[in-house]
């Protein structure tokens, strides 16, 4: 298979047992298509970081196969790594260096000539909205700027596959949403992205395909839309005109609760007719101003899958 036809990442029966006997990966297999935005979800300790560590050659696998655009990491590690950009969870640059120097020096590790690296650094720092900070001490950057610098540094080598290990862990929602915009732009320009996260809203907002890993094994994988369609429950939020009555109407098969003084929260079977809901509202004198779907259905799927696996273990 040629590199242009090969998956961006192919992992086959990947296993990792650490020296202390912990079996971190138990035969993981997955394919990520070129150009995809792929989520790797799982609770802490599920094996996400071990998987990313093996793919990026920071962790030695016990057995299995890893290919990056058709290149086996065992057969030609350097060629495979040249196609990968890694953004780890921890901030791991020198806080006393300037963003421009951080990017240029990183490019130097990959043999990029300095003149070329300087031009590339200007390009990636402008894309990251950091060019005005290029000559400032990195420790003076805000938390969001430091995160964007990590991404800019990884993009210095023009990687075809960008891997981000929980890039928004511990940052506030404004920074997180700013990073989402940056990552969407990088993906739209043609870079394949793999994102590990435990923010389910993040995966649903950004990713087209996903795998859920729990206790070192993949418990579900496939297109985001297909996985969400497996849910037999839908959630809606209703914005109400006026106050909410003391006694809410009973709607058989559905759960209706008060979200706040002007919002009702409804969970109902996907097969249920919404007309039944509105009829019940009308009978109770509840006037609906607007309604919206609850965004984070993925959380329910995640909890269901991981708790099911836990019960079986």
From TrEMBL:
Domain of life: Bacteria
All copies of domain ABC transporter, residue ranges: 9-240
Keywords: ATP-binding, Nucleotide-binding, Transport
Pfam families to which the protein is assigned, alphabetical: ABC_tran
One Gene Ontology molecular-function label: ATP hydrolysis activity
Nucleus is among the record's keywords: no
InterPro entries reported in the protein's UniProt record: AAA+_ATPase (IPR003593), ABC_transporter-like_ATP-bd (IPR003439), ABC_transporter-like_CS (IPR017871), ABC_transporter_ATP-binding (IPR050763), P-loop_NTPase (IPR027417)
Listed name of the protein: ABC transporter ATP-binding protein
């Amino acid at each position: 298979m040629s590199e242009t036809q090969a998956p961006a990442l192919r992992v086959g029966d990947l296993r990792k047992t650490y020296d202390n006997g912990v079996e971190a990966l138990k035969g993981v297999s997955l394919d990520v298509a070129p150009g995809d935005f792929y989520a790797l979800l799982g609770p802490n300790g599920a094996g996400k970081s071990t998987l990313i560590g093996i793919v990026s050659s920071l962790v030695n696998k016990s057995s299995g196969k890893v290919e990056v655009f058709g290149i086996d990491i065992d057969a030609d590690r350097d060629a495979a790594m040249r196609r990968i950009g890694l953004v780890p969870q921890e901030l791991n640059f020198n806080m006393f260096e300037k963003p421009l120097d951080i990017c240029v020096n990183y490019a130097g590790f990959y043999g990029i000539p300095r003149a070329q690296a300087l031009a590339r650094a200007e390009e990636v720092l402008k894309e990251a909205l950091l060019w005005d900070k290029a000559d400032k001490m990195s420790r003076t950057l805000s938390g969001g700027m430091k995160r964007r610098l990590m991404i800019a540094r990884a993009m210095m080598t023009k990687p075809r596959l960008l891997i981000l290990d929980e890039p928004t862990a511990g940052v506030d929602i404004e920074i997180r949403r700013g990073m989402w915009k940056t990552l969407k732009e990088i993906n739209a320009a043609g870079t394949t992205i793999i994102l590990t996260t435990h923010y389910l809203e993040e995966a649903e907002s950004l990713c087209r395909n996903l795998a859920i890993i729990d206790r070192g094994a993949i418990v579900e994988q496939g297109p985001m839309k297909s996985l969400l369609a497996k849910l037999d429950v839908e959630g809606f939020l209703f914005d109400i005109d006026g106050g909410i009555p003391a006694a809410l109407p009973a709607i058989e098969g559905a759960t209706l609760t008060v979200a706040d003084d002007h919002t009702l929260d409804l969970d109902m079977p996907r097969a249920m007719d919404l007309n039944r809901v509105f009829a019940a509202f009308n009978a109770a004198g509840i006037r609906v101003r607007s309604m919206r779907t609850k965004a984070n259905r993925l959380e329910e799927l995640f909890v269901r899958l991981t708790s099911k696996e836990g019960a079986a273990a």
